[in-house]
Design goal:
The complex is a heterotrimer of chains A (257), B (304) and C (291). Chain A folds into 2 domains: 1-80 and 172-257, Rossmann fold, CATH 3.40.50.300; 92-169, no CATH class. Chain A is of the alpha/beta class and 257 residues long. Chain A contains 10 helices and 10 strands. Chain A is globular, with a radius of gyration of 19 Å. Chain A has helices at residues 43-50, 73-78, 96-103, 112-116, 121-140, 156-168, 186-201, 213-219, 237-242, 244-250, and strands spanning 5-14, 17-27, 32-36, 58-63, 66-67, 81-83, 174-178, 205-209, 222-227, 230-235. Chain A starts with a strand and ends in a 7-residue tail after the last helix. In chain A, β1 (5-14) and β2 form a beta hairpin. With 304 residues, chain B is an all-alpha fold. Chain B has a domain at 2-213. Helices cover 70% and strands 1% of the residues of chain B. Chain B contains 13 helices and 2 strands, in the order αααααβααααβαααα. A two-stranded antiparallel sheet of chain B has the order 1-2. Chain B is globular and about 50 Å long. By secondary structure, chain C is mainly α. Chain C has a domain at 2-113 and 129-217. Chain C is 73% helix and 3% strand. Chain C is built from 11 helices and 2 strands; from the N terminus they run ααααββααααααα. Chain C has helices at residues 2-30, 37-53, 59-82, 90-112, 138-160, 162-172, 174-179, 184-210, 217-232, 237-256, 263-277, and strands spanning 128-131, 134-137. A two-stranded antiparallel ribbon of chain C has the order 1-2. In chain C, a hairpin with a 2-residue loop joins β1 (128-131) and β2. The longest helix of chain C is centred in the first third of the chain and has 29 residues, at 2-30. The chains are: A alpha/beta (257), B mainly alpha (304), C mainly alpha (291). Chains in contact: A-B, A-C, B-C. The B-C interface holds B 34, 38, 40, 42, 87-88, 91, 93-95, 97-99, 101-103, 105-106, 109-110, 112-113, 169, 214, 218, 221, 225, 229, 254-258, 260-269, 272 and C 31-33, 80-81, 84-85, 88-96, 98-107, 109-110, 219, 223, 226-227, 230, 261-262, 264-265, 267-269, 271-272, 275-276, 279, 291.
């Protein structure tokens, strides 16, 4: 079975600093893969590599068998890879609904002409379709009742969920979640866990970066471990947890439970 | 018959109304690239200039009907914008602003040296003959500008522009081709500026490249900022006040730029949303009528 | 002929460099294009003019007065128009800067009128000195000398003093510098003061060079100096010096080969070109944004 996403000796250098060093990684369709590692290990950089924010200095990235290395971010997103950000990047001044509607951008095609010819039935139909998609995504994360709130007025946990809804609006094949549980209380984390499971159940492959070990262990099918830009372990949660190299990388900081 | 009606209005008052109408068109145009898309254009007077001279030359040298002139002036300005926008719009905020300023200066210098624009002497433009009197045309254009702005703001296109304004990286992450939308926004903006310029040329009767310098760009910017960047009623409001004010404040004309300057600083520091920004006109009207829309709780509790 | 134009270019370019330094330092430290910087240059010229014309001071004292006055002005402007906006969007700060610029030039127009004023004869009697087949005036020598001295002084402050170290730290990383105990507000004010002082000196020198001081000299000079700063690499002090000199020389040569009516456009053309082809300029550093 060919992998959905494949990193092949992916390397990225910033002026002498090697942030990601020869990483081989495969993500299978339909799985939940987690990427863990100490701070600064290069996890977010891998996300940025995949989504096209930085091109790899060496190595390749392929999605569904086709190379995506060096493609601009908007093309990669249009190809079905959605993401959230470590530091939330919502459209703060806009409403919750508008945020997700913008997420649904690639699901429509009418631009300036569509704007000016708003009453054209094709345009109206498209707007209706986008609206329905947006509300569906909001319902998936439990925020439909706050559709007209301004995004910046949401509490932190809901802002993270909104970002997920926006990424879902791409109707992605693969979704990258960058520390989705950061800053959440245990109750919110339980809700999030269910949410991610539902996302996978709906057919979306999930690749996430997280620091909370309990969260990761309970959710993932497989885990990959990154340290100083190098993949030091990969496998099922039980395997990884017992791996001495992994334990050493974390230096027994008590994060493994 | 319409001509007779228009001629019966006090010409001084009419002039103010026309100035307001042109101002609205210009302000709404700038609002699209600067207010909606968040890209500061400090050289928008250049597009006004291009439109003005295109329209003037079309009237002087060819016999094209005025409506066509208007359209062609706008289209030509838009084409110029698309051309220079493509390389320029990849620059970030501050640099883009200065670059547009530089471009406007270049346009001014070029027009001052071209034979066809009559160099520093400028062009005298005859009043066009058209079925409708000029003031009515200006009014219609202003209304069209408002309608177009409203349509754009609430469309997929407008949402993409707002996304670019708020967070480019996030916008890219949902598949928005930033460069393409910026250029399109720039072109639409320039179209409106060009149309405004054409109206200006034909109403004033005389244009000179020096009219369209930095101060003109600041005039336009002040209109948009006063009312609130990104707000359509704001742009209309700002344009109205600042187009009419010079007339009423004629005794204060030397203080005008002084006031503008202080006004810009004051607004940015104390009320960056302008006087009308953050005000949703539809909500306001409906609320006054006793109807609450969407159970909206705008800015009630702060974020936790 | 070549040598003559080169001399003219270096003299002119030195003044651009003085102004460009202010832009680059402020941009390096708070990522703001201080649009009002050109007007400080203009104010400096007027103060120098007043000191010489009304108070009959010699040119060096007049320059010192202009520098001190503008230092205060620069700090006040930062405090009123930029500091409150530090957490706001870049657009707001830029618009505020434009507001200050317009305010100052309009004020100058009101106070001094629209006509350019010249320095009185006794300000600095300039003689011509022959070098090869070119003339260099003592005025040009003064300009080049003063500019060089000021730039060396600036380099010294930035590289060898404690406050200079604080400036460099803050421009590298604002937040870390603050966490390390640097009084960031003071450093920023100090940067504005330094930049303004240099611009003021430039103003007096340019005023004498062209023997014309007017309310609108700030805009054009400011934009050209900004072009110079960008050319050299915004945020880089040696870059601003290099950019200023290059721009001055290019402009002079451009006029000499016949493009005199496009004189002002030359700077803008360079600006646009640099921004499109090599936005970091000649000596600037590439900055990666963290996502």
């Amino acid at each position: 079975m060919t992998a959905l996403l494949k990193l092949d000796n992916a390397t990225i250098r910033f002026d002498g600093l090697v942030a990601v060093n020869g990483v081989d990684l495969e993500i299978e369709k339909g799985e939940i893969l987690a990427l863990i590692g100490p701070n600064g290990a290069g996890k977010s950089t891998i996300f940025n590599l995949i989504t096209g924010i930085y091109p790899p200095t060496e190595g390749g990235i392929s999605f569904n068998g086709k190379s995506i290395a060096g493609l601009p971010p908007y093309v990669i997103a249009g190809g079905g890879i959605g993401r959230t950000f470590q530091n939330i990047r919502l459209f703060k001044e806009l409403t919750v609904l508008e945020n997700v509607l913008i997420g649904a951008h690639t699901r429509g095609r009418w631009d300036l002409t569509g704007a000016l010819l708003k009453l054209l039935p094709q345009v109206r139909r498209e707007e209706g379709r986008l609206l329905k998609l947006a509300i569906h995504c909001l319902t998936q994360v439990g925020l439909a009742h706050k559709a007209y709130e301004q995004a910046c007025n949401l509490p932190y946990g809901e802002q993270r969920r909104l970002e997920i809804a926006r990424a879902l609006a791409i109707e992605p094949v693969l979704i990258l979640l960058d520390e989705p549980a950061a800053g959440m209380n245990p109750q919110e984390k339980r809700t999030l866990l269910e949410m991610v499971r539902n996302i996978r159940a709906a057919g979306v492959t999930v690749f996430l970066v997280e620091h909370d070990m309990k969260f990761v262990m309970g959710l993932s099918d497989r885990i990959a471990v990154l340290d100083y830009g190098v993949k030091i372990a990969e496998g099922r949660p039980e395997e990884v947890r017992a791996n001495p190299a992994v334990i050493e990388a974390y230096l027994g900081k008590g994060t493994m439970r | 018959m319409l001509h007779a009606f228009v001629n019966s209005i006090d010409p001084y008052f009419l002039q103010i109304l026309v100035n307001i109408g042109i101002g609205i068109t210009l302000a709404l145009g700038l609002n699209i690239i600067t207010g909606l898309t968040g890209q500061l254009s400090l050289g928008h007077a250049a597009f006004m200039s291009v439109g003005a001279f295109t329209g003037a030359l079309l009237t002087l040298k060819t016999g094209t009907p005025f409506y066509l002139n208007l359209l062609l002036s706008g289209l030509f300005s838009a084409a110029v914008a698309a051309l220079i926008g493509w390389p320029i719009l990849r620059l970030t905020g501050d640099y883009l602003a200065i670059c547009t300023l530089g471009f406007a200066e270049i346009v001014k210098v070029v027009f001052l040296n071209l034979e066809i624009t009559n160099k520093a002497l400028g062009l005298t433009v005859p009043t066009p003959t058209s079925a409708l009197p000029m003031p009515v045309i200006v009014l219609m254009v202003a209304i069209l500008a408002i309608v177009a702005s409203v349509l754009i703001q609430n469309s997929r296109f407008g949402r993409a522009l707002k996304a670019i304004r708020d967070d480019e990286i996030a916008a890219e992450s949902v598949g928005i081709n930033i460069a393409r939308y910026k250029v399109q926004s720039f072109a639409v903006s320039a179209f409106m500026a060009g149309v405004g310029g054409c109206l200006y040329a034909h109403f004033l009767g005389y244009i000179n490249p020096s009219d369209f310098g930095f101060l003109k760009s600041i005039d336009m910017l002040s209109m948009v900022v006063l009312g609130g960047l990104g707000s359509i009623p704001g742009a209309v409001f700002g344009a109205s006040i600042l187009s009419a004010a010079p007339e009423f404040l004629r005794f204060m004309s030397q203080y005008r730029m002084l006031v503008y300057g202080a006004l810009l600083v004051f607004l940015m520091v104390f009320r960056p949303n302008g006087l009308l920004g953050g005000v949703n006109l539809t909500d306001l009207v409906l609320r006054k009528l006793g109807i609450r829309r969407h159970g909206a709780t705008r800015n009630q509790e702060g974020s936790q | 002929m070549f040598l003559q134009q080169l001399i003219n270019g270096i003299a002119l370019g030195s003044t651009y460099a003085l102004i460009a330094l202010g832009y680059t330092m402020v941009y390096g430290i708070i990522a703001l294009i201080n649009f009002a910087h050109g007007e400080i240059f203009m104010v400096g010229a007027f103060v120098g003019l007043l000191m010489v014309g009304v108070f009959k001071l010699n040119i060096f004292l007049a320059m010192a007065c202009a520098m001190i006055f503008c230092m205060v002005l620069g700090v006040v402007i930062e405090f009123i128009a930029y500091r409150p906006l530090r957490k706001s969007s870049r657009l707001s700060a830029l618009i505020s800067a434009i507001g200050v610029s317009i305010f100052l030039s309009s004020l100058a127009l009101m106070v001094f009128g629209a006509n350019a004023k010249g320095f009185p004869e006794q300000a600095f009697s300039s003689r011509q000195i022959h070098i090869g087949n070119a003339d260099i005036s003592t005025l040009q020598l003064l300009i080049i000398g003063v500019s060089a001295a000021l730039m060396i002084g600036l380099e010294f402050i930035v590289q060898k003093t404690k406050i200079g170290k604080a400036m460099r730290a803050t421009s590298e990383d604002y937040n870390t510098a603050a966490l390390m105990g640097v009084n960031v507000n003071f450093v920023i004010s100090f940067t504005f003061a330094l930049g303004s002082a240099l611009a003021a000196a430039g103003g007096v020198l340019v005023g004498m060079l062209f023997n014309a001081v007017s309310f609108n000299m700030g805009l054009m000079a400011g934009l050209k100096a900004f072009a110079a700063a960008v050319l050299g690499g915004i945020g880089s002090i040696p870059g601003a010096m290099l950019g200023g000199l290059l721009l001055g020389v290019t402009e002079v040569f451009g006029v000499a080969i016949g493009y005199s009516s496009y004189r002002d456009a030359i700077a803008f053309a360079i600006l646009v070109l640099v921004l499109l082809v090599r936005p970091t300029g000649l000596l600037g550093r590439k900055v990666m944004t963290k996502v």
